[in-house]
Design brief:
Helix content is 32%, strand content 15%. The chain is of the alpha/beta class. It has 2 domains: 127 residues, NAD(P)-binding Rossmann-like Domain (Rossmann fold), CATH 3.40.50; 176 residues, 3-Layer(aba) Sandwich (Rossmann fold), CATH 3.40.50. The strands form 2 sheets. Strands 8-7-6-9-10-11-12 form a 7-stranded parallel β-sheet, sandwiched between helices. A 5-stranded parallel β-sheet has the order 2-1-3-4-5. Strand 10, helix 10 and strand 11 form a beta-alpha-beta unit. The longest helix has 19 residues. The chain starts with a strand and ends in a 17-residue tail after the last helix.
């Protein structure tokens, strides 16, 4: 059987899948070409960039499952897969610790102006220390967590370890350990706001100009979730005008961003290129555990429902 990879995955996961059939990686996952590539595939695996649209799913007459080596499945047409009765396998917990640590790193980097100071020292400007002013400690500040899933809860725990006051908003989850605030109140209260939401129609554009206008002028906003959750033009305007203090961003709506993206021109923004999950531990875990569930399906069994985005397709 043919197992199609739309992106590179960990070699241990490739070896596991190789015991079941021919593992083939497409060099160009162009959506227009995918239906032909799906036609004879038994399983298709992707990570964050390779998209699995409806047309490709409907062309794969021999498909038995689809998989995303990661936590988010917004790059897969889950509704189309569900209509075909295909389980969409993902890694719900494999990214938790890596992304949460990365979010705190961005909060620290933005609060202490790491990027600006690093560039100054490398340019020979050691005396920047006498001009830059004071950085901000996290201790004693309010950490607002936007979304309390696995990653959001871990960010909250790390914030508490830094002796921050932790508050959160979530559409569904509740946790008595941390203080719940209504959405607008969280924006008002947060000294550091971490965006930890899944992307869906309800969260797309949720961090908009109005809500950004509620934040403190010293506030730091961190996004390790999805760029489309934020109105990036409004964020750039707020940062440029000093209505928000700083931002740490691992994700953008367009990746890579265009050269004229307004956020790229700002000194009070720290960027990483969507690498929060790419650690030695998390990358292997999310790839191998997803490959193991795919292998169960291809051997004629059922995947563990905890790893299936659409468990309603399971018997």
């Amino acid at each position: 059987m043919k197992i199609l990879l739309l992106e590179k995955i960990h070699e241990d996961a490739v070896a596991l899948l190789g015991e079941l059939g021919e593992v083939r990686r497409t060099e160009d996952p162009n959506p227009a070409d995918l239906p032909a590539q799906f036609a004879d595939a038994a399983a298709v695996l992707t990570r964050g960039r390779g998209r699995i649209p409806r047309a490709a799913i409907e062309a794969g007459r021999g498909l038995r499952c689809l998989a995303r080596c990661g936590a988010g499945t917004d790059n897969i047409d889950v509704a189309a897969a569900t209509g075909r009765g295909l389980p969409v396998i993902f890694s719900p917990g494999g990214t938790t610790f890596a992304v949460a640590e990365h979010a705190i790193m961005l909060a620290l980097a933005a609060s202490r102006r790491l990027g600006f100071l690093d560039r100054a020292v490398k340019a020979g400007d050691w005396e920047v220390r006498n001009r830059v002013g004071l950085g901000a400690e996290l201790r004693g500040k309010t950490l607002g967590v936007l979304g309390l899933g696995r990653i959001g809860r871990r960010i909250a725990e790390l914030g508490a370890a830094f002796r921050m006051r932790v508050a959160y908003w979530s559409a569904h989850s509740r946790d008595g350990q941390f203080k719940y605030l209504e959405l607008d109140d969280l924006f008002r209260a947060a000294d550091v706001l971490s965006v930890s939401l899944a992307l869906n129609p309800e969260t797309r554009g949720l961090v908009d100009a109005r809500r950004l206008g509620l934040m403190k002028p010293t506030a730091v906003i961190v996004n390790t979730a999805r760029g489309e959750i934020m109105d990036e033009a409004a964020l750039a305007a707020a940062l440029a005008a000093g209505r928000i203090g700083a931002a740490g961003l691992d994700v953008l709506a367009a990746e890579p961003p265009p050269a004229d993206h307004p956020l790229l021109r700002l000194e009070n923004v720290v960027f990483t290129p969507h690498v929060a999950v790419l650690t030695d531990v998390a990358y292997r875990q999310m790839c191998v555990e997803v490959a193991a569930q795919v292998a169960r399906v291809l051997r004629g069994g059922q995947p563990d429902a905890a790893f299936v985005r659409n468990p309603q397709v399971l018997p």
